[in-house]
Design brief:
alpha+beta; Arc Repressor Mutant, subunit A; globular
């Protein structure tokens, strides 16, 4: 199942090299903002700004990891499996296939039957 999105908006988000780097690094495993900052070679402030934008467009999801000492921190994971831009008679269309959880994928599979 894919979701139709505004090609200009998502294109603007993906135009940023840091946002693209976050998506690539957080694709295989959830990462904290500090780890992403290290991997992307930018400040944590920059990472948090990009993460906010990516979360607004549901391109990244956050989870909270509790620690034994009572503290907790967030990790971020890419929520995109595939982006497709199609040329139609009306212009360009963008569809996004989200990764979601196993439960989400099972629900979508059942709904598509």
């Amino acid at each position: 199942m894919s979701e139709e999105c505004d090609v200009e908006t998502i294109g603007g988000v993906l135009e940023d090299s840091v946002a693209r780097s976050i998506l690539v690094h957080a694709q295989s495993e959830p990462m904290s903002a500090s780890v992403l900052a290290e991997r992307c070679d930018v400040s944590t402030v920059t990472i948090y700004r990009r993460l906010e934008t990516l979360q607004e467009h549901d391109l990244v999801v956050a989870s909270t990891i509790p620690e034994r000492d009572g503290n907790h921190y967030k990790v971020y994971k890419t929520n995109v499996h595939q982006l497709t831009v199609s040329l139609t008679e009306d212009g360009f269309e963008l569809s996004i296939k989200r990764t979601g959880t196993a439960a989400d994928r099972l629900t979508r599979l059942i709904e598509e039957m």
